[in-house]
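Working notes for the structural subgroup meeting. M.R. asked for a predicted model of this chain before we commit to crystallization trials. I am recording the input and output together here so anyone reviewing the notebook later can reproduce the run.

Input as submitted:
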Amino acid sequence: MKNVEIIAEKLASIWHKIYVVGSYNVHTILKKNFWSDVDLTTPARPEEIRKVLKVVWEIWAKYGTLIVREWWELYEITSFRKDIWSINHRKPKEVIYTTSLEKDAKRRDFTFNAIYYNPLEKTYTDPVWGISDLEKWLIRFVWNPGKRLDEDILRLLRYIRLKNKYGLSPAESSYKQFITSRIPELHNISLDRIKQEFDKMLVDKTNISSLEDLKKYWFFREFLPQIDNLSLSPGWKIMHKEWNVWIHTLMSLQELNHLKCNDSDIYWTTILHDIGKYSTYSFDDLGNIHYFWHEEIGLKIFTDYVVKQLPFSKKSQSKIKWLIKNHIRIGNIENMKKNKSYELMSHPYFEDLITLCIVDNLGKNPPNKECWPRLQSMYSEFQTKLKNVKLLTWDDIMKLYPELKWKYIGLKLKTENNKILERM
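Returned structure, recorded in token form:
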């Protein structure tokens, strides 16, 4: 906090105080021992802040927020304000500055985000009793929940994420029904913002409870019914005794959490890899369940529907598609012809496929603990052999076959590298 104290002293030179708000205060009060951003707020206006602090980013300046630097550390600092919200439930049509801490507090989402810590005086100012709520492990909207959501409907998802992240309980029993009824209003805001909030949930260790809340509050029913349908896809009485595919998915995510993965694409793939099962399950004469070609159907659902509901980068789409398509195929890799198995293992996403295979097999009842050690052993052996050969690149093919048109270069690259792999 030394740099924050320096910032506070600089603002004090122009007769303004500064306060720490947000997650840093929550972690301190709840004695949560993990890293957090330090967000700052002050009654000083942006033009006053610029006089004494090094401003490095002004993209949110019109909303009263600047990024300042002190000894190579960056801090977000926002001027006290009252917002007038009216544009798509998200952006303020107008920002009105205020010097009143109490008025600034009234615009904030939850009471724990309206706790103000003075780094020089080492004291808290708590105008809406956020500390009391935290001590009772409660999450509470500031004053009127309806008005808070009218100002910013994304707060629905922030409520779910922060409630679970901090292990809090709803302050009011009416929150569940209230939030469920307003989920459709998320269509009024940018899908990018929804995806960003979802990604934050996924990579947090409390993702299981957040996903359960999203299902309980009908978020999936509204935005991603294919995920909602996982609970309608039955398990198998021999291999999958976890009752349905939704439970299997959550069990797999828990295994992924144990691996301390922080790649949101892997989390998304774990959620989506079985979305084709609802459309493909069938029973044979003995009562056994089958999901023939569910990976192909899942791939089509992701391509035709999911990416149109939520925005994924081209790189993420490519990765998730390949992993969904091959998550069944990897289970048969030991029986493949050598060149086919080598081709699969030479793919840049193969290590991610092993990760998916691990969590997919451990996330069921009974767990399969034998397949992935063999896969890792095979892959290590392949990597050792691969050190003695050089696979061709896109540029190599362009130099060797300059007459090839663009769309045939990739096919030629695959063919030539397969020949190299066959000789290993």
